[in-house]
Amino acid sequence: MVDNFPVLNWKNDEYYSQHPSRKQVRDACLQRVDWTALCEYASSLNAGKPCRFLDQSTIGGVHLIRILSFGDTQWIARVQLEPSTPTTESLLRAEIDTKELIRARTDIPVPKVYGYKLHDANSIRAAFILMEFLPGSSAMDADGGYEVHHGSILPERRSFFYKQVASIQVQLASIRLPKIGTVIKRDNNSVDIGPIPGLGRPFSTATEFFKAWAKHAKFPLSDRDIREFTKNGPTEEILSSIHNFPRRLRKLASRISINDIGPFPLYHPDFYHSNIIVDGSFRVLGVIDWEGACTIPWDLVEPPLFLGIVPPAMDDPRNYKENGQPWDEDSIQRLN
């Protein structure tokens, strides 16, 4: 059993020195969790086999990730960094139920879930999921990592990889449910729709969803940050657009969707190549990080995020040549 997995994107000391607040959160989580109790719980789910945690850990979103080893096999323990709340509990529950639905209705590879706790009121003192370890690396980290290819899929890999990704997206959209919201599995194994954290009730129509979005919409950056980032650009125009977005969205809510009523497709909110695990030949082993997955209006379905592009009219003019063509070759391919 080798304790070092070079294909995994572990956060190193340099990362934590640059992000001291993240180090503080990580260290607090490492101290709060009863790792011995978690190991004992995992053993109880795996025929009593003894296990141990490897020394490495990393941060992914709002979770701390560690590898649990049974000697011949490994599991992933994904533990919530912060103490649980009703919102995080509902997100975790929806993620687990979404994975089960995907496994039942498609061939999309997603990690098996072996066990979980939704809140901190347990002997482990944390909410967590124990799941299958996929022995590969993210598509973003493969082939030498970001320092080599800056997050792009190498040209010789694209055809094979993109075909798999297209199949995953088609299958995902084939899961259609009558309302917009999060997936809930009932005790009788039926599938229901629950509220979206931050937006509220499951929505029967796209119009209802867009009105709720308009009501709760909040841009993630402050006006001060935007002024700092757009010193040489149309700052006031950008700020005006941001401030008027909720009002305009509310006004147009009933006219946005081409299909106002369901069924609505299932959606991965972070379908990025950092969440697609591949082997050395770029065969997809699994899609991870389903937190926040929900059904959405058809109008919000989009290509994988690593194939997206900022429309030229909204982009920085410095990214384009005098003839209007992007400097970046990948952008040219996406536009064409």
From TrEMBL:
Residues 87-297 form the Aminoglycoside phosphotransferase domain. GO terms for molecular function: transferase activity. InterPro entries: AGP_Transferase, Aminoglycoside_PTrfase, Kinase-like_dom_sf. It comes from the Eukaryota. Keywords: Transferase. The keyword Transferase applies. This is Phosphotransferase enzyme family. It comes from Aspergillus sclerotialis.
